[in-house]
Every structure is written in C-alpha cells, then in structure tokens.
Amino acid sequence: MKLEVVTIGSELLLGQVVDTNAAELGRALAAAGAEVVRHVTVADRPEAIRAAVAESLERTGFVITTGGLGPTRDDMTKPLVAAIFGKPLRLDAAVLRSLEERFRRLGRPMPAVNRTQAEVPEGATVLPNPRGTAPGLWVEDAAGRVVVMLPGVPSEMRGLLAEQVLPRIAQRSPGTVVRSRTVRTAGVAESALAERVGAIEEDIAPLTLAYLPSADGVDLRVTAWGLREAEADRRLSAVATQLRARAGADAYGEDGTDLAAVVLDQLRARGARLVVAESCTGGLLGGRITAVPGASDVFIGGIVAYDNVVKSGTLDVSPELLERHGAVSEQVVSAMAQGVQRQFAVDAALAITGIAGPSGGTAEKPVGTVWMAARLGKEARALKRVVPGDRGEIRARAAQGALDLLRRLIADQR
Amino acid sequence: MKLEVVTIGSELLLGQVVDTNAAELGRALAAAGAEVVRHVTVADRPEAIRAAVAESLERTGFVITTGGLGPTRDDMTKPLVAAIFGKPLRLDAAVLRSLEERFRRLGRPMPAVNRTQAEVPEGATVLPNPRGTAPGLWVEDAAGRVVVMLPGVPSEMRGLLAEQVLPRIAQRSPGTVVRSRTVRTAGVAESALAERVGAIEEDIAPLTLAYLPSADGVDLRVTAWGLREAEADRRLSAVATQLRARAGADAYGEDGTDLAAVVLDQLRARGARLVVAESCTGGLLGGRITAVPGASDVFIGGIVAYDNVVKSGTLDVSPELLERHGAVSEQVVSAMAQGVQRQFAVDAALAITGIAGPSGGTAEKPVGTVWMAARLGKEARALKRVVPGDRGEIRARAAQGALDLLRRLIADQR
User: Fold this and answer.
1) pLDDT tens profile B295-332
2) Which residues of chain B have a CB within 8 Å of the CB of A290?
3) C-alpha closest to that of B352 among B309, B297, B411, B302
4) pTM
5) A206 touches chain B (CB under 8 A)
6) A305:B309 CB<8 A
7) B160: exposed, middle or buried (C-beta count within 10 Å: 0-12, 13-18, 19+)?
8) For chain B, which domains are there?
9) Residues 353-382, chain B: which have Cβ within 8 Å of A?
C-alpha cells in the first residue's frame, strides 16, 4: 500500500520547527506495511493546502495530513479537505460533549472558538484524541479514496497514529511490510566500501541498498519494500549477512547499535574496565560512553586534559615530549593513554588529542588532524587521521575513531 | 521571491533520518528574503525525483534539492536534473583536480567511483564544497529557471548554502525579509516565564511571539514577517529589549548564544580559569564547554568521576561522606567541586552528580535527581533539581543547569 503525507504549517517551511512528525509517520507506517512515497510540506495558506492534498490524493488515493486542526484562524485543514470530497461540515454532538468535558476537567470555561473543533465532514469517522482538543478525522469516499487528518502536536499525532490509524491501515493491507536493516561500519570511506561491496544492487533487487555516511562511519541500509513479513525478514537477513561479509572487520554492528555499546560489551566479556584521557574532545568521549545505560560496570572515568598543564601534571606526559613533538603527536597520545591507564590501574584506556579548529591548524598538522590511542593490558595502538568537517564533526569523528581503534585491538587479541 | 525545496532520500521517507536540512534551508532562506512555498521529500527512485523536481520547477521556477550527489549508485540527482534541462553531463577538469587533491590530503587513493562526482551538467555553475567530495551545482536555463543541487550531508549543505547559495539569492530578491530574534532563558519554567512576560502579543503585532522550551531552557522567539529589513530590525530590537527586561536575571543571551560561551566570557573577563568534575554527565559538560572555539584560554580540563573510586581517589571526596549521604547529595557534589578546584589550583570549578536513569532511581531520589555545584574562589553554591526527560535529556539539563549556576554566581559577585 502506497500513500503520501502532507504536513501543514508555516513554522515548518520557515524552519522554526523541525518536522519530526514526518519522520515518525514514515517509521511507523513502514513498520505497518505502508510505504510513504512522497512527503509534502505547505504553509498555512488555503490554496497551498488544497492543491497539495488534492494532488497527493490524485497520485496515491491515500493521504495523511498533520496540522491545521486547531481552533484558531490559521487552522483550516478540515474545511478544505471537506471541500475536496464535496462534503459539508456538520456539528458532531459527541465531539462537542467530549470537548466540553475536557475543559470542565481542566477547570476552564470553553472558549467559543473551540466549538469549530466539533465540526466534522459529513460521514467522516472521528478518531478520538484523549491528549488534546482536536480529534483526528478519517474521510473516505465511495471510490475508496482516503484522507486522514491528524493534529500537528507531536504527542497527539503519535497517540492517534498508534491507537487509531495504524490498526485501520493494517486491516487494509494485510501482510506486507516496508522494513530495513542496517550494517554499520567505521574506519572506511564510503567510496572504498562501495568498491568492496561491489555491484550488489541487481542481485538483491527488489531490495534496495543505500550508503549513509556520517560522523559515525558509513551505514549500509538495505530495504525491502512491500513484501510479506517473513519473506522480507528472510531476504534482509541474507543480504545483511552478505554485506557484513564484504565489509569484513570494518562492520561493527547492525541497526541502532552504538559503537560505544559494542566496546563496552567487549570489555565486559573480559571483565576489563575502561578509562579515557581527552584533549580536543574535552569530555565528549566519556559523554559518548556514558550515554549507554549500564556503562558503569565497565567505565570508571577519566581525565579531561585540555590544557598541557593537565597532560603533564595529571597524566604524567613529560614536558620534553610535549615540547619536542607537540601536543598532537603519536608520542603524546600514547603517553596520555599510558598515563591514564596507570593512574586508575585499569586494563583498558583510550586517549585523544587533535586540532578541532576552526583555528590552530598548520601546514604540517592541518585542522582535522587527530591522534588516537588505545591500550588493553600492555598492548597499545595509535592511529592518526585527518578527518573532514567542522569543529563538532571533527570531535565526533575523533571519539568514534578512538572507540573503533579499541574495538579492533580487542577483536584482534581474541 | 518564492521557491520550492526537494529533499531526496528513502531514509527520510522511512523516518530513519529526521530531515533537518529542510528546516535549516527554510530558516536561512527566510532570513535572505526568499520564501519556501513548498517542501517535497521523495525516495531514491529516478521517476519520483524527476517528477518532484519538474513539478516544483513548473510551479515556482526555482528549486533547491538536497541529497543524491554521492559517488554511489543510489545517488542519481545530477543526471536526472541534467535531463530535465536537456543538458549532457561533462567531466569537469577543475572539479576532478580538487577531488584528487582532497584524497591526496587525506592520504588515501581516490576510488574510481568518485570520478562520477566530477561530472557536471553542461553550463552549470560549480559551487565549491571544501567540506566534502560532492560540489554543489547551480543549473539555470535561458528562461531563468534554476535548480540548485546541494549534498545531503548537513554540514556540507550548510556551508554551501551560506557561502554560495544565499549570496546569489540575495542578489535576485532585494527588499523584504522574514526575520526572527530570540531571547534565551535558563532556570525558569515556561509557565512562570509566561506569567512574567504577560499578554504582550497584541502590543507587538504584526510581530509574533513563540515560547520554545528545550533542555537548554525556554527561548522566547519573536518573528517579523515580510517587512523591509531596517523596519524588521528596528521592531525586533525593541521587542527583544522588552522581553529581556521582563525575563530579568533568567535571560542569558540572544539568538544562537550558548550558555557555555557566556560563562567562558564572564570568566575570561576576570582572568579566571575553569575546571569540572563530572559523574552522571560522564564528560558531557567538558564536551559542551570545549565545543566553544577558543575555550582553551579559560578551560583547563577536569575529572570524569563516574565511579565512586574516582570521586574518593582522585577528587578526595571522603568515603564516609559517600557512605553517609550517597553519591547524589549536596555534600558530595560540594566536595567534588572543592576537590577538583584544589587539584588544579584554579579559580572556578563546576561539579555534577545525579541519577540519569533509566534505572537507579529511588522514592527519595527519583531518576532525574541532579545535584550541581559551582565555585568561584572561596564562594560556593549547590543546587538540586529533579528534571524531566530521558537519559540524554536529563544529562543535557544537568550540564546546562551547572553552567547557569556558575553564571548567576559570577553575576551576583559583580
């Protein structure tokens, strides 16, 4: 089943609010076997709303809208959709009662403007919205064309979607799903990975493959469109296995797997504990690691050695080393890892030093130069990367790179 | 000037990635006086992309696309747009050189697939992208119809937009702007702030006011719509002054101002240096502070004391204190701040300890309980908050709360 989503609101086009409803609808509908083939956003202007909804209805016969159901003047979705279907608006007594009841519960008089919220297109199904004043509406004509109107408030939209819309959609298209599976890689460039994966697209059709690069690395996302659930899962599983094989040691997990969680699991399995020493990341690596619930049985803490005073004073990096090689060097990052490991007397340590910019770069060490070190027992590795991006991205890539270095060190020790 | 935005990527329709590019484009274009009248998202399917771009071009004559410019097979925007304009793709020698140069700098061989990224529609203007491999492209025909293709990676899109696209658009549409100004507050609830601000909406019309709560606090955003630039700025400035006066000590800055930068400036003005001691935030506070370029003249570093072993061993928090009051207590957070200040012998210190969840809460200390401490010289403050949200939000609120505590301590000392 294919459908289109129309999100309505000037604030969305002006970028004052990020349209999380669209993403949430896409996710939930795909899981229920419905494919969103287009998403359109228009402003709170009657002609724009009317045109967008009518065109989407023309293309797919099924449209979900969000927004424009409030009591104020800029809320006009309902009369416009009613007009598309050629249906008049009628006051719905049950909706009016539940509105009045809601205001009574909140201990406030119901403003007159809210009365318009009890008007529904003739013959429409009212989708009760216990979280807000605007109910959802399901309008369907004899030809089976459907427009579902949902409020724009994310918590209300989400509730109506789960409780009212998805069950009805699942009934219309029993069986098929749109489902994805992701193989996550780190430490390899998109194009190098693509060469390794090769021309797999024809072999896996009708499944599709997308390369999604980010500061975390490159995700390989394969999607099955509109297959029966068991068939989709079987094929996705086979393709994921193929992709993992081709990605080799660069693959660290699937779907939402966080590299920090992978490393914590590796260390937990060995009963090892972890500390960090951070310069340019300033605490981000520790922040990444402790974002994983339950990190506390592996992660002890660390030293943020932003200033060289802390590198020498607390981490025992010799001032001569700092002088001779500079703070961003293999020698210093290795000494940082060794220093923090010794200080806390633990098995595993990570260290990062680099030039995050925007200033501080030189011809020899440009902005983006990052040295990372990992230690497990007496074994140590250091790695230099010159990574792209702005300050935030460079620091995120440094944290991910350090975690990946330790992941590989542990894996190779097995 | 009116235009449409087409964002391309199956991952957007599937909701696996939230489309932040669309919001960012809307914001930046509004500020440049261009109105996004429609935003369309389509999957990585040739027919869907071609139809969406052609329809948008038909409606407004000006389209900006994001995504589908990478080196892999799922990237197909460029040939499709070239086909709409009836122009062949040609290898651009300058783009190829800069691609090869980029790979040389990163110390990697350039994979053959990247060569396709050097192909541009005949006659197109290449918009250099120093942050990535895919340049932006500006294609314009004799009738003045324009399609601007930008990469989907947010940092690359943002850079190209600011440096290449907005200056060209500003030249095309002199005159009115849609412009906002934001007064940022911390440490006050939305409803309390709303009572203080009062019924200002009618006084400021046609400007509009929105309350935007987040983990940073509550932002007050006022927007001027379609006024001439000087008039918009004059009115926004007057309203911002009013709002700051009503928000009082809770206001810490305007627009994109980061509270960490405010605190760094306060400390810099006094020649003071700062250290941190973090438990539940695990390094996030240091990460927040060092996200500010130039933090290094104020921020020295800190201790991530995730485990109590580090609190007592490195921060000198007495084990009896930990035993008697628990790690999340006024006594322990105060001792952490004192310990880290003493260890690094600096003027200013911040400490955080709390229960970020999802587990670890008790009836007395529920998940969300956070103790924060700030020290400046011998003066010290500690503050407890029970904050809402999930693990990530609780930790973000804790970091922001600690910074706000130090901001107020410094301000009161003046």
Assistant:
1) 999 999 999 999 999 999 999 999 999 999 999 999 99
2) 280-284, 306, 395
3) B302
4) 0.79
5) no
6) no
7) buried
8) 2-172 (3.40.980.10), 176-254 (3.30.70.2860), 259-413 (3.90.950.20)
9) 357-359
